[in-house]
Amino acid sequence: MMNSVNPRIHRFEATLFPVNAYLVEGRSGVVAVDAAFGVSDGKALRAKAEELRKPLQAVLITHPHPDHYGGLASFVGDLDVPIITVAGVDDVIRRDDESKEQILRPMFGDEWPKRRVFPNKIVANGEQVKFEDLSFHVIDVGPAESHHDACWVLDANDGASGVFVGDLVYSRMHCYLADGHHESWLTAIDLLKQDFVPELTFYCGHGKPDSAAAMLQWQAEYIRTFAENLRSLSADDFADATATITRKMKAYLPNDDLLFLMQVSVPPLLEARIHKHSALGTPE
């Protein structure tokens, strides 16, 4: 039986930088979606969950970027709860764990947990997980914004009541594109447009939730704008590529929100273009 009352969705915005985790509160318990990045944010998320005075029933993970799972150890603590994702997300988290340690420890020190916690339950595309009155099913997207993405649909009697999309869409913030799956990301966006009604709320990893239609259209335009700007660079522009792309992307989105994520994406994708193995594809 699907949930017969609307659950309450609490957005938690982390402090190290703007990334969301969510607490979905049902009648009998709480399900978290993602767990933020660092030790302190994981603890703060745990405190917010405990304020609800209901047991934590599970954690659902959307994708393998560390700002979405790094807080697991301090969030879950000594609780024995299922940490659920699809196999591709779990594989990338475990595969890249050592490289993330080498990168993030010098940058964040003890905020990056010494003991990382990984998913402990794997589900297949379309599989439903139920926690008394809360029910979700997963969409296994594959490579898109990250090397493997998934989104979690909050089920209701009359269909989806919301979708936790991770970083498949940002809420008008600059985006991370360095993983290089531009074409499959755009394909995923097209599929989400087909799967969900325009007015359905998307709960995103960065920024405020918004309607599916508004978020998907904007995200596709941002990706295409970035790709075209990178593709249009001449050899004379390569030395100042990051500054040039920054100027052009700020003309498209005139704010600094998560600007550094876009900026760190330029060098690896420019390198891929120079060596002719770019995933940027052809603009639509």
Structural commentary:
There is one protein chain. By secondary structure, the protein is an alpha/beta fold. The protein has a domain of 161 residues: Metallo-beta-lactamase, Chain A, CATH 3.60.15. Helix content is 37%, strand content 22%. It is built from nine helices and twelve strands. The chain has a six-stranded mixed β-sheet. The protein is globular, with a radius of gyration of 19 Å. The chain starts with 7 loop residues before the first strand and ends in a 10-residue tail after the last helix.
List the helices and strands and how they pair.
Layout: E1 8-13, E2 20-25, E3 30-33, H1 39-51, E4 56-60, H2 66-69, H3 72-76, E5 83-86, H4 87-95, H5 97-108, E6 121-123, E7 128-131, E8 134-142, E9 149-156, E10 159-166, H6 182-195, E11 201-204, E12 210-211, H7 212-231, H8 241-252, H9 259-274
Parallel strand pairs: 3-4, 4-5, 5-6, 10-11
Antiparallel strand pairs: 1-2, 2-3, 7-8, 8-9, 9-10, 11-12
Helix pairs in contact: 6-7, 7-8, 8-9
Number of helical stretches of at least 4 residues: 9
Based on DSSP secondary structure assignment, what is the total number of beta strands?
12
Taking the sheet with the most strands, its summary is: 6 strands, mixed
By CATH, the superfamily of the domain at 8-168 comes out as Ribonuclease Z/Hydroxyacylglutathione hydrolase-like
Characterize the overall form.
Answer: globular
Whole-angstrom Rg: 19 Å
Query: Helicity level, as a percent range?
Result: 25-40%
The average pLDDT value, as a whole number, equals 93
Strand order of the largest sheet: 1-2-3-4-5-6
Secondary-structure-derived class? alpha/beta
What is the CATH class name of the domain at 8-168? Answer: Alpha Beta
Name the poorly predicted regions: none
Secondary-structure element series: EEEHEHHEHHEEEEEHEEHHH
